[in-house]
Amino acid sequence: GSVPAAELLREESVRFADVGGLEDLKKVLHRLIVMPYVRPDLYAKYGRRAGGGVMLYGPPGCGKTLIARAIAGECGLPFFPIRIEDVVSEYFGASERNLADIFEQARANAPCVVFIDEMDAIAYKRHRAGGDSARRLTNVLLQQLDGVGSDTTDMLVVGASNAPWDVDSALSRPGRFERRVFVPPPDDDARRAIVETLLHGIHADASGATALAARTDFYSGADLRAVVDRAAEYAIEHALDTGDDQPIGTSELLGAAAEVRPTTLDW
Ligand code: ATP
């Protein structure tokens, strides 16, 4: 398993301001994770402390990773991602060793925000009954998280899952991933921010972002990317056919949206 390169461990620069819309969600996470880290004195006064994990869940492509980065950015900490492909190996015992090694690295780089993507794959609940290597992997994760519990202010753990019902319930006990926070499909403002980012730096009419955002309820960030890609194909086709390389406009974007199904409806 590979581990994150050292350059990933610079202080994260993404902030909540870079996450479009989702104002309620940002407020909840600010109170739940960011402020306990930034103002431990205040929380200690009331018997609360920083740390403990939070699990972000919701349909794919809706900003869980971006939000986790923003949590790190708001805390002024580096972001330390753990991806399933860094962990899972077909060789006997290697997955467990990889996971322990990665946590070791994270600890060596604390304070940091550890992000565990695809929690359902690392700690799949039915594996507990089995006694196979996947169950041992869940146990390694539990051990590592309990280690974090002793001095929680230097390692914040954020998990993410598209299938929270498949995550071993042992992970939701106190001190682990006590809090689950739903990351909904992007709202109007979030979609506008996403589309503006996607159109930035390509030959497009920026006003199309507002029009597209208004017509794409239930589209994920990933779906919106597919829409913009399709609209770009229209513009290229038009330029090749006519020699007129006009910017991607509202009509191309809305035409493309009609051809891309919003995937969050399947979730
Ligand atoms: P998965 O579950 O597939 O891992 P995810 O929920 O982690 O997906 P991201 O990878 O964070 O989703 O988001 C998908 C894309 O949409 C990214 O390019 C991200 O920057 C963008 N995006 C999603 N939500 C927002 C938002 N609210 N504001 C700005 N960009 C967003």
TrEMBL record:
Keyword field: ATP-binding, Coiled coil, Nucleotide-binding
Keyword Electron transport: no
Domain of life per record: Bacteria
Every AAA+ ATPase domain range: 50-187
Residues in coiled coil: none
Protein family (similarity comment): Belongs to the AAA ATPase family.
Name used for this protein in its record: ATPase family protein associated with various cellular activities (AAA)
Organism name: Mumia flava
Interval of the full protein contained in this chain: 129 to 395 of 427
